[in-house]
Amino acid sequence: MNLKERLTAPGPKRILALDGGGIRGAITLGYLERMEKMLQKRHNNSDFRLCDYFDLIGGTSTGSIIAGGLAIGMSATEIKALYNKLGEKIFSRKVGIFKRLSYKFQISSLEKELKKIFGDMTMSSDRLKTGFCVITKRADTGSTWPIYNHPDGKYFKYTKDYLVRQVIRASTAAPTYFKPEIIDIGNGQKGAFVDGGVSMHNNPAFQMFLLATLKSYHLNWKTGDDNLMIVSVGTGHWENKESIDMVTDNKLWDWAGGVISMLMRDASTTNEMLLQYFSNSPTSKIIDSEIGNLKNDLITEKPLLHYLRYNAILEKEPLAKLGFKSVDPRDLYEMSEAKNCFMLTCIGEEAAKVQIKPAHFPADFDKKKNSDLENFDIEGFLNRNKIV
After folding, report:
1. 3 state DSSP class of 27
2. 368 Cα distance to chain centroid
3. Among candidates 203, 61, 76, which has minimal Cα distance to 134?
């Protein structure tokens, strides 16, 4: 089955959405490794990969690197081993002192490592074994771009020739960390792209829901908690608590970074709230002290999807419960501290043991053998895809 057939075939669809967060993407990999091993056991296949299970894998910023590796068939364990080396190389080479007012790190290390992994494959490459989406921000127009590999996508005639490594580089171009990525977008135009994390979709799960269901994106996947599942994985969360005196004494440069952080946090919380509001979610979290976890709220008559959200809480008490009593969580927040990679991976592994349950993944979404497709409406499928 080629990619278009997979994306347009009937039956339940599964989406994996991976947050941005720099080096804290190591947390994500702890969850993904446990998830993959659980699915291998369920499908009785040690070679089973997350790209075999998920029909669409997408990410923002560091999540796009991981999503790309999964989409070409790498195991979560392979990516975890690679990621520890990758972080050190990417965040070790700072630019000269005179350029540091614009951005902190050289892009050559990141570009070199991405080329090793993805070579010159394009978004239309058959090496992408499943649906793949990268969230980036076009800085010169202010528009958010989900760049994806569905052959029927409106702009695929242009994006099919984009290099995968260049698209991922664009999504990871965090302002002040790396310079923007210039992409020839087709039709004689160029665009300047920065980290998708400065959009509403550093947590890309809601954008992935829109991609799957809005007619304009042409996937048109059926909604319902037995038809559509989104698994969303974060890069660590903590409550932001500052003293009143500290806030009132903030200087201009303090507010510059603080306001961006506030907006990103609100965007992520809103994404989680909306998806819980639309869904059946066994992992629903408390959004705030007033609205709670929305267990008794549903915006539609029936759930539109089955939604799972996994994230590690980087605070003293939750970390202690996981066995990290001596860790100061404040040391883990900076997204460019490569020295934290191993510790963050361990935290992700331990948090995943507690949070991920086989029951979260209903049997309705298990991958079926070919024999299970005997009732497949072949004529309808051919007509829908204009094959006959």
Report:
1. helix
2. 25
3. 61
Residue type, 144: T
Kindly report the pTM of this predicted structure: 0.90
Pairing assessment for the beta strands 131-138 and 143-148 based on DSSP bridges: antiparallel
Q: How far is CA 286 from CA 42, 209, 273, 302, 373, in A?
A: 30, 21, 9, 21, 40
Spatial separation of the C-alpha atoms in residues 201 and 246, rounded to whole Å: 29
CA distance 212 to 366: 19
**For residue range 278-288, what is the model confidence (pLDDT) as tens digits?**
999 999 999 99
- Residue-wise pLDDT tens digits, 138-169: 999 999 999 999 999 999 999 999 999 999 99
- Tracing tokens 């089973």 back to the chain, one arrives at 48
Report the alpha-carbon distance of residue 317 to residue 300 in Å, rounded.
37
Q: How far is CA 287 from CA 117, 201, 368, in A?
A: 38, 17, 36
Q: Is 183 helix (H, G, I), strand (E, B) or coil?
A: strand
